[in-house]
Write a structure and sequence with these properties.
The protein is an alpha/beta fold and 270 residues long. It folds into two domains: 48 residues; 150 residues, Ribonuclease H-like superfamily/Ribonuclease H (Nucleotidyltransferase, domain 5, 2-Layer Sandwich), CATH 3.30.420.10. It contains eleven helices and five strands; from the N terminus they run αααααβββαβααβααα.
Length: 270
């Protein structure tokens, strides 16, 4: 549907007219062998179930399942997938040298209104013949998913665009929280936040629990949608996630919200 060589309409404009994410146009599955893709899917499922498993226990768990694997391979795949565990350790979400790390601002903070704190993160998405990355921005108070996007790379420009789109649509938060990944510590990303007068908060090194609200979103979207569907194309993935996030925001009740829906809180209709 999108013509990449159209001289009259830019790709951005075509995507706007078709109401699709620009990232879906450029989807190319990151390829590995089928054996490795199967292994990565199992790693992802184990991580969702036991997020505190590092490479050693992950390797043992996979060996117990019958996989002939070593710790070196599992370390490489976990890094490729962007997987974090919930305790501090070496070589996790490393910022580039020279990137400024901001303090974590949410400890002890009472989050009691919308647009007070937003969080974002990136997660691995297994597909039938490859994999992609999914990024989402949520409002912590309401759990409302403000924006999301898919890509086959985790670069700062993509992350910046996704957040900027959320700001353009919903205004800006008081605080924006991320982990210490190089995408989020980059000057491009942090200057975008600072330019909007947003306070920057970053998780403690290796502490996925500091970003627990969006970690719960990943668990839900994977167990309730991604693992149940062997998405084959970028368009299939986009359509499936579009439907899921619409239902998540507008129809899925949350125990943590006293069984209200995110839209009830964010749009103040409760």
């Amino acid at each position: 549907m999108v013509e990449t060589d159209n001289n009259k309409l830019s790709i951005n404009k075509q995507c706007e007219v078709l109401q699709i994410h620009r990232s879906g146009v450029y989807y190319r599955p990151n390829g590995e062998s089928q054996h490795t893709l199967d292994l990565m899917l199992e790693i992802d499922k184990i991580h969702i179930k036991w997020p505190y498993y590092g490479t050693r226990r992950m390797t043992v768990e996979l060996q117990n399942m019958g996989y002939v694997v070593g710790r070196k391979l599992i370390r490489r795949l976990m890094r490729l997938m962007g997987i974090e565990v919930i305790y501090p350790r070496q070589n996790t979400s490393q910022p580039n040298k020279g990137h400024k790390i901001y303090p974590y601002l949410l400890r002890g903070l009472k989050i009691d209104h919308i647009n007070q704190v937003w969080q974002t993160d990136i997660t691995y998405v297994p597909m039938k013949r490859g994999f992609m990355y999914l990024m989402a921005v949520i409002d912590v108070h309401s759990r409302y998913v403000l924006n999301w996007s898919i890509s086959n790379s985790m670069d700062a420009a993509w992350c910046t665009q996704v957040v900027q789109q959320a700001i353009e649509k919903y205004g800006k938060p008081e605080i924006f929280n991320t982990d210490q990944g190089s995408q989020f510590t980059s000057e491009l990303f942090t200057e975008m936040l600072l330019g909007n007068n947003i306070k920057i908060s970053m998780d403690g090194k290796g502490r996925a629990t500091d970003n627990i609200y969006i970690e719960r979103l990943w668990r839900n979207v994977k167990q309730e949608n991604i693992y149940l569907n062997a998405y084959e194309t970028g368009l299939d993935l986009y359509k499936g996630l579009e439907e899921y996030f619409y239902q998540y925001n507008n129809h899925r009740v949350h125990q943590a919200l006293n069984y209200l829906k995110p839209i009830d809180i964010y749009k103040n209709v409760a």
